[in-house]
Structures are given as structure tokens and as C-alpha cells.
């Protein structure tokens, strides 16, 4: 046991306790001065090393200058004499580092033959004439860069220093404590994001502000994108591909820029072998994009693309769909499976023609997205070495994951996940409202079923999704660092690191409220219209929030106003230099989300008051709606013009394509009648539950766990707590069995002979065929009633579910009114179901959007 403790201590010392620590004064004589006495260190890189290593060294030198005002000095070549030097290099590409390893002055066994690992170590008297050396060594080119940027973060330069304008705290000196740190391999091998639906943000910004000379997203923009990915410990990019921007390969320098940052290029689910058929396919000269009638024409352009891009590091998409995001063209359903198998074989032959490696060692992915999943489920055979990339339903819920047989595949699995989307039933391109706990829950169960090869995040225009991007990359780098509870504080901890630890509790409350309020209805969905739908659903309409019952609408307005007020208070409390970053990361989103809700709810109130004949009050509500509309425009202007217009054209509301929520809703203002303000404070008489009650999910008792994880989780749900009935990868249970995993809730006395129980769960999918979403409900020991929601994508019920982030199941039970109390039991069937609200009604429940708020129960 003593030896085991020593081994564990040494291992922890390498991976945890010895992480680089920076001080502005030396703590001991062996601390390494990165900058002292107005002089910054000399940084050496080998001429034989990779371009990204030289680039990372140069950026690190600039980072030292950002902190101290004095840049480090980068020198290409072997170090000579010196007091204190920094050597940055890759194993087998830096002779100085290789000699230290050969002389046992540094131990590289922890990273040798690894993947993207690095060590950071201070060495005393490494060679004659050098007093002390700080060694940053990587097992490969990205590992070296990650080690370098780890020090950049340690000295106080955020990965978002440029993209979110995070200020750098100034220091006169920088001392690194004696360090011997070895990183572990990343949890997910390939980690990146996809710039998508870029026509209303990053494209106009790049073409009109950042790179006006080119007038497009090009090498200058992609250099900043690649630096961001690398600093966040990502390694992969799927570039913009909409017709609003030029294709990535239109500009030959783009791939050179990506390679200089060691970024792996990939492409979206509909871009075979890095070919963007949206802008690169010319039907007039190339023929129809139809593999049945024009196979040779299609393969000709794919062959050319691989011949040009094969020298670089890529993760290739094997695919055949229609143009852009359309389904297959001109293929009978009975032919689809055999055709796609033919496509895969042909595309792999093209790869083999130009890449001098065995085909099973070339990174390839197949994405069963939309109609392609159906083709896959009908028996499509995918080569075992190809990575199966599973997709969410575009609203954050994974549709399918690897079953036990698929988990054995050598190509493993991956995920393609959305924090931004353009499509039915409604886009959400404006602000990012996917909560960290949902990201964790969905991606962790994917990881646990084999999705550790490839993670791709759809980030829209990158801004304003910076916090979600940070959460995603941190999880992909080290998923074991987090659990379903700690992940909820990930973003507040990150912001506290940027702006001050004293603000962390307030950041957490603010983020919790921001995500909670958007959970029941995203700001983009408040117009209550649907896109690409039947005509009766495509116009702006009143919401389902009620002004008459349970303070439903009023409480939402009140909560949003409090959130907005807190954002303003924090903004003004922060130092002036920090305000732009705070505004970009969360301030704008909080303020603008309030105004969007205010715009639509005040328009609804205008119509309701007018119907009651309260003309002056209706006029006031109309003016408030217009004021909210104008406030959003003002916030957009502020976002685009602060910092001398650095982000001009980045922030716009929405596509003017099919979306309508960005418009001013219809209101009636009766001229000559004046205005009378409406008291929007909560009505005490509405905060009463009569002949119904809510279940406080936090007050549960586990009756029987039966080997399953039954837990309360904060950070999801209408009341920001959910009960999870087992982890998704746990064994199936029979919810009707007395030995099923069960939890119980106490109910009050009920003066009726029956009750109706409404249970809202999250609209999750079964993880694979043979699983479901079953759970059971019982009251007072009556036979368990079981529900099983298996949503059919694009059905009306599925659309309702994703718009409200909830599925309602209703049960009825007889009740003995003589009993003083009652018991409600939830039983686990298919693990992974998450319950977010339970309402028990015996005749008094009033109409609202998704039921009364839990605060009505707690105010009694």
C-alpha cells in the first residue's frame, strides 16, 4: 500500500500539482524569469522544427509583451550561452531537446510516441554556458504548440484575448516556479468547430471590416480562426461553406494558413472529400450533381481536390447527398443503400491514389445526418476503419449513438453537435443558449459509447458563442475533469478567471438565469412562428405565456428584467478595459434577450388590453413593445461600433430569409387616446395553487436504486433542476417491476377521488435501436403507468418538443380523499430520462405555457 501511495503521488505530481505557476516576484532562487528587470527571455526554436512551433513561439513572445510591455526574443537556431533561456521544440525535430533527453536531463517517456502531449520542465545547467533552461517539448507539432500556449494562459493571456477582447492584466515581471509537468493525451483525438450559416455575421464582418481588400472570409480571417482553435486546444476546422462566402479552397493560401497552425481540415456532412458543391459545382459546365447519371463528372472534381490537398493533414468526409443540405437526387429508395456503398468505395479509391498510407490509417468519417441515418439503418455497410459521426437533432439532443457492436469498430465514433442552427421548425442563429449541462450530458453519453475520435461543433459565426466553444473544447481535451454537477460552473469559473474571482457567484447566478429563461423558449422562438412550415404557423403570433394565470408572463418579464439589470450593474462595476469583453461574452445576450421577450410580450399585452377596451393601457403596451424593438437595434449598434468598430457587421438579428422574429410585431396604437402605464409587478392573487400542486423535485427519496444512478441535477429544466432516472448507458430496467429503480415524492392531502399527473421530461432520443425513453409513474401504489416518447423528427409533436425543450406525458390515478398524504413514485425503465416538472391536478389547474413555476409552491 505504501508503494501504491508513492506511485499515485508521483503520477498526480506530474499531471496536477506541478502545473505551471506564474508569479510577479520570485518565490525561490530556482524560479525561471520569463521577464525581469525590464528584460524578457530569449526563446529558441530549431530551424528543422515545424512552422506551427515557430508560430507558437512568436505568439508566446508577443504574449509576454502583452503582459509586461516587453516582448520575448525569438531566435531560430541552437542556443549558445545565456543565463536563462527558453527552448521550444518537438521531439526528433530539435537537437538541443533530443540531447537533453539522451543525457537523461529531461524524461520524455511520458510523451514519447504520444498524441498531442507535451512537457514543461526547468533544467539547471543543461549545457556548459547556460545557467537555466525552460524546456517546452511536444511529442508532435501540436503538442509543442499546446505546451507553449499553456504558458501563455498561465501568464494571463486568454485564448479569447482577440476574439472576445479579453484584457490582459499588466505585470512588471513574470517568474515561473520550478516546473516538471507532463500533459496527458486528449480525451477526444480530433476536436474542432464548423463555421456555418455565416451570411449574417462573420461573412459581412470579414468582407466589410476585417478584410475589406479581399471582401470575403480568406487567409487573414482564417489565420485568426486557426489561432483561436489552437489556443483552445482544438485541432480541426470545418470552414464556412454557404454561398454567401467563397469556398475555402477558392483561395489556395487558406490551406497553407491552416497547415501553418497545424489545423486539420475537415468538411461538413454534405461536402465529400473537402469539396463544397454549393459554390464549387457548376451545373452548366459540370452537369447534374447526380451520382447515377454523372458519376464520372463528380469523381473528376473529387479526384482533383484530393490531388491538391493530400499533402496536408485532413479528416475526410465520405458522403453523397444533394447540393448543399438536400437529400439524394434521382435515386430510387431501393437503390440508395447500394449506391452509397458504391460512393464510399469510389471515394476511398481516390484517397488511396494520392495518399501513400494504408487506407485504414487515413482519417475518414461518415455522418448519418437527416435522411442518411435512415439509409444507414437499412443496412448500409461502412468500412470498419471509418469513423461514424453521430448527430444531434439540431436542437441539442443526440439522435443515435453506437450500439454495443458498433462500439467495437476500429474507426470508433464521433459527434456533430449544434449550438447554432438554420432550419425547421425555427432557426437559432442570434444568441447562444445551449446550457453547459445539456452539452455535457449529451456528449458524455456519446463519449461513453465510443465517440472519442472526432467532435465537431456547429458554432455559426463563432460570436457570440465563445463560452459554449470554451466548454466544448475543454470537455474534448479532458472530459474526466468534469462531471454533470461541476460542468454547470465551468463558464462562471472561466469568466471569474478573466474578470476576477470576486465576481464568480454573480456570474454563476447570471448564467443560470440566462440559460434557464431561454430553456422554456429561446429568444429567437418568442414570435411563436415556425419556419418552413404550413402557412398557418409561419406568421408572428401571441405567445402561450399567460398574463392571467400564475403570473406566467409577468414573472418571465420580471425575471428577465432582473437579469438585464444585473448585467448592467456588473458591466459598470468592472474596470473600463474589461467592459467590452463582458458585453461580448454575456452582457449583450442578457440585455438583448430581455428586450426580445419584452417586445413580444408587450405586443401580446397590447392586443389583450385592446380586447378588454383598455385603450390607454393598450397604447402604453404598444409603446413598450416598440421601445424594446428599438433597444435591440441600439444594442446591435453598440456591439458593432465599440472598440472603434472592430466587430462592425458581426451582430445582426437573423436571416431575412424566412425568419420573422426580428421584425416588430403587429400592435395597435390608438391616436388621440394617450397612454396609461400598466403595473407589471407580480399579482399576489395569481400566485396561488388551487386544487393542484407542483412536485418539488429536490425533495425526493430513493426507494430503490437497483444499481442505477438516480440523481438531482442542477442546470437543466424549467425550474433549473431535473431528476435523472439513471445514466443513459446503464442497464435497462422494467419500470413496472417492484424491484425497478424508483424514487418517491410526498403529496399533500387531496380532496378528490382522482388526480391527473402531468410529467414534463426532456425530449431525449433512445441511444440506439432496442432502447427507448420509458419511465413509469404511480400514485399510492396503483399499477405503474408507463410512457415511452420516441419522437419522429419533423413531426408536429417533435417540433413542439424542441421549441419548448420538453415532452409532456399525462397520467390519471384514483385517489382516496380520506388519506392525509399521498405518494408519487417515478420508476426507471430506459436509463437517461430526465424529469423537469411534475404537476398534480385535481380540478383546479389553469392554462399556462408549460405549467406553474416552482416558486408558487415555495411561496405558500
Automatic annotation (TrEMBL):
Any one biological process term the GO annotation gives: carbohydrate metabolic process
Signal peptide: 1-18
GO function terms (MF aspect): hydrolase activity
Keywords for this protein: Hydrolase, Signal
Domain Gylcosyl hydrolase 115 C-terminal: 711-853
Name listed for the protein in its UniProt record: Glycosyl hydrolase 115 family protein
UniProt organism field: Candidatus Paraprevotella stercoravium
Amino acid at each position: 500500500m505504501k508503494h501504491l501511495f508513492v506511485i499515485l503521488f508521483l503520477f498526480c505530481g506530474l499531471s496536477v500539482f506541478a502545473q505551471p505557476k506564474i508569479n510577479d516576484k520570485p518565490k525561490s532562487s530556482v524560479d525561471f524569469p520569463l521577464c525581469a528587470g525590464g528584460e524578457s527571455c530569449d526563446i529558441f526554436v530549431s530551424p528543422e522544427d515545424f512552422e506551427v512551433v515557430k508560430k507558437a513561439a512568436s505568439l508566446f513572445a508577443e504574449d509576454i509583451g502583452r503582459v509586461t510591455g516587453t516582448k520575448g526574443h525569438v531566435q531560430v537556431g541552437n542556443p549558445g550561452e545565456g543565463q536563462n533561456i527558453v527552448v521550444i521544440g518537438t521531439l526528433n525535430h530539435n537537437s538541443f531537446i533530443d540531447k537533453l533527453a539522451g543525457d537523461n536531463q529531461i524524461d520524455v517517456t511520458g510523451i514519447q510516441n504520444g498524441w498531442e502531449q507535451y512537457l514543461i520542465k526547468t533544467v539547471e545547467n543543461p549545457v556548459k554556458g547556460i545557467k537555466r533552461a525552460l524546456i517546452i517539448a511536444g511529442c508532435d507539432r501540436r503538442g509543442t504548440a499546446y505546451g507553449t500556449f499553456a504558458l501563455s494562459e498561465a501568464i494571463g493571456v486568454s485564448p479569447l484575448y482577440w476574439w472576445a477582447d479579453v484584457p490582459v492584466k499588466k505585470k512588471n515581471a513574470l517568474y515561473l516556479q520550478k516546473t516538471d509537468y507532463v500533459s496527458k493525451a486528449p480525451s477526444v483525438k480530433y476536436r474542432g468547430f464548423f463555421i456555418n450559416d455565416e451570411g449574417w455575421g462573420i461573412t459581412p464582418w470579414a468582407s466589410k471590416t476585417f478584410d475589406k481588400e479581399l471582401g470575403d472570409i480568406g487567409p487573414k480571417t482564417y489565420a485568426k480562426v486557426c489561432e483561436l482553435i489552437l489556443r483552445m486546444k482544438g485541432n480541426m476546422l470545418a470552414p464556412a461553406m454557404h454561398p454567401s462566402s467563397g469556398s475555402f479552397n477558392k483561395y489556395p493560401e487558406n490551406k497553407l494558413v491552416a497547415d501553418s497552425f497545424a489545423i486539420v481540415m475537415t468538411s461538413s456532412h454534405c461536402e465529400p472529400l473537402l469539396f463544397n458543391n454549393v459554390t464549387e459545382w457548376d451545373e452548366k459546365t459540370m452537369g447534374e450533381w447526380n451520382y447515377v447519371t454523372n458519376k464520372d463528372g463528380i469523381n473528376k472534381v473529387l479526384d482533383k481536390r484530393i490531388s491538391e490537398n493530400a499533402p496536408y493533414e485532413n479528416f475526410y468526409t465520405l458522403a453523397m447527398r444533394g447540393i448543399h443540405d438536400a437529400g439524394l437526387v434521382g435515386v430510387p429508395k431501393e437503390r440508395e443503400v447500394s449506391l452509397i456503398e458504391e460512393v464510399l468505395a469510389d471515394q476511398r479509391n481516390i484517397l488511396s491514389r494520392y495518399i501513400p498510407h494504408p487506407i485504414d490509417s487515413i482519417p475518414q468519417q461518415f455522418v448519418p445526418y437527416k435522411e442518411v441515418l435512415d439509409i444507414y439503418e437499412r443496412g448500409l455497410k461502412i468500412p470498419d476503419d471509418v469513423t461514424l459521426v453521430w448527430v444531434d437533432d439540431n436542437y441539442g439532443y443526440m439522435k443515435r449513438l453506437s450500439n454495443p457492436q458498433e462500439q467495437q469498430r476500429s474507426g470508433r465514433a464521433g459527434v456533430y453537435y449544434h449550438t447554432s442552427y438554420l432550419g425547421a421548425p425555427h432557426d437559432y442563429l442570434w444568441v447562444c443558449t445551449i446550457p453547459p449541462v445539456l452539452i455535457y450530458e449529451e456528449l458524455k453519453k456519446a463519449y461513453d459509447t465510443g465517440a472519442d475520435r472526432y467532435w465537431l461543433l456547429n458554432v455559426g459565426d463563432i460570436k457570440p458563442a465563445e463560452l459554449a466553444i470554451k466548454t466544448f473544447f475543454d470537455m474534448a481535451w479532458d472530459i474526466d475533469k468534469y462531471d454533470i454537477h461541476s460542468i454547470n460552473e465551468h463558464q462562471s469559473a472561466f469568466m471569474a478567471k478573466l474578470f476576477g474571482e470576486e465576481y464568480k457567484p454573480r456570474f454563476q447566478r447570471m448564467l443560470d438565469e440566462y440559460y434557464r429563461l431561454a430553456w422554456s423558449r429561446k429568444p429567437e422562438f418568442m414570435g411563436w412562428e415556425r419556419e418552413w412550415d404550413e402557412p398557418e404557423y409561419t406568421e408572428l403570433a401571441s405567445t402561450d405565456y399567460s398574463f392571467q394565470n400564475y403570473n406566467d408572463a409577468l414573472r418571465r418579464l420580471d425575471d428577465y428584467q432582473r437579469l438585464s439589470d444585473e448585467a448592467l450593474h456588473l458591466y459598470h462595476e468592472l474596470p473600463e478595459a474589461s467592459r467590452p469583453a463582458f458585453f461580448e461574452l454575456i452582457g449583450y445576450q442578457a440585455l438583448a434577450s430581455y428586450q426580445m421577450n419584452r417586445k413580444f410580450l408587450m405586443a401580446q399585452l397590447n392586443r389583450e388590453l385592446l380586447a378588454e377596451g383598455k385603450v390607454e393601457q393598450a397604447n402604453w403596451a404598444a409603446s413598450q413593445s416598440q421601445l424594446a424593438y428599438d433597444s435591440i437595434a441600439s444594442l446591435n449598434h453598440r456591439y458593432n461600433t465599440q472598440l472603434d468598430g472592430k466587430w462592425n457587421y458581426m451582430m445582426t438579428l437573423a436571416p431575412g430569409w424566412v425568419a420573422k422574429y426580428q421584425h416588430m410585431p403587429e400592435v395597435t396604437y390608438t391616436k388621440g387616446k394617450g397612454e396609461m402605464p400598466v403595473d407589471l409587478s407580480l399579482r399576489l392573487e395569481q400566485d396561488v395553487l388551487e386544487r393542484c400542486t407542483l412536485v418539488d423535485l429536490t425533495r425526493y427519496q430513493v426507494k430503490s436504486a437497483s444499481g442505477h444512478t438516480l440523481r438531482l441535477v442542477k442546470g437543466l429544466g424549467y425550474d433549473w433542476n431535473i431528476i435523472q432516472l439513471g445514466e443513459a448507458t446503464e442497464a435497462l430496467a422494467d419500470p413496472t417491476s417492484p424491484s425497478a429503480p424508483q424514487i418517491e415524492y410526498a403529496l399533500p392531502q387531496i380532496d378528490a377521488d382522482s388526480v391527473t399527473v402531468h410529467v414534463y421530461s426532456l425530449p431525449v432520443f433512445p441511444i440506439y435501436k432496442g432502447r427507448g425513453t420509458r419511465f413509469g409513474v404511480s400514485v399510492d401504489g396503483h399499477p405503474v403507468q408507463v410512457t415511452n416518447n420516441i419522437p419522429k423528427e419533423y413531426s408536429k409533436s417533435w417540433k413542439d418538443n424542441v421549441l419548448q425543450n420538453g415532452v409532456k406525458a399525462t397520467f390519471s390515478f384514483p385517489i382516496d380523499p380520506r388519506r392525509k398524504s399521498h405518494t408519487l413514485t417515478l420508476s426507471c425503465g430506459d436509463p437517461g430520462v430526465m424529469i423537469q416538472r411534475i404537476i398534480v391536478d385535481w380540478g383546479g389547474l389553469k392554462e399556462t405555457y408549460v405549467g406553474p413555476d416552482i416558486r408558487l409552491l415555495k411561496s405558500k
